[in-house]
Specification:
Helix content: over 70%
Strand content: under 5%
Shape: elongated
Radius of gyration: 18 Å
Order of helices and strands: HHHHHHHHHH
Number of domains: 2
Distance between the termini: 54 Å
């Protein structure tokens, strides 16, 4: 343990170690096993935070990858019964469907969290999704971001 690790509260130290363990897991099944171990940490809030941070990092990298569905299936079982991580994975799956032109539900996007709508407005290129967000997103910030993306799209 380094001097800086010793000065750090134990949950901060464990959070960092959990993120490292998740990042180096070799493959979706091993990653799911590590996530299950992290979720057994005695501090459930910190454990879920570490897993969601990892989900965000991994899903962003896998969004355009054919490995996303297998990864999402592996993670789904581990996250069962944990509302926030389950929702985040569902929202990443929605973003993937929209990104790849797969079937998706307008109602699901409108009901999605502010985080999901904000991420969609900033990163998606789907005309249908941007039009929906520009008119029906929950926050003015997301509506404006989607509308701006649509304006830039027509200018280019």
């Amino acid at each position: 343990m380094s001097r800086s690790d010793a000065a750090m509260p134990p949950e901060h130290w464990r959070y960092g170690r959990h993120l490292e363990s998740l990042a180096v897991a070799p493959g979706a099944d091993a990653e799911a096993e590590v996530a299950a171990a992290v979720l057994r940490d005695p501090d459930p809030v910190m454990a879920e935070s570490a897993v969601v941070t990892h989900l965000d990092r991994r899903a962003a990298r896998l969004l355009a990858d054919d490995g996303f569905p297998a990864w999402a299936r592996a993670m789904t079982g581990v996250l069962a019964g944990r509302a926030f991580p389950e929702r985040r994975l569902r929202e990443w799956t929605l973003l993937k469907a929209i990104t790849h032109g797969e079937p998706w539900s307008a109602a699901e996007l409108v009901a999605a969290s502010d985080w999901c709508q904000r991420t969609a407005a900033q990163s998606l290129t789907s005309l249908d999704a941007l039009v929906l967000l520009a008119s029906s997103a929950r926050t003015r910030r997301v509506r404006n971001a989607a509308a701006e993306r649509l304006r830039r799209r027509t200018v280019v």
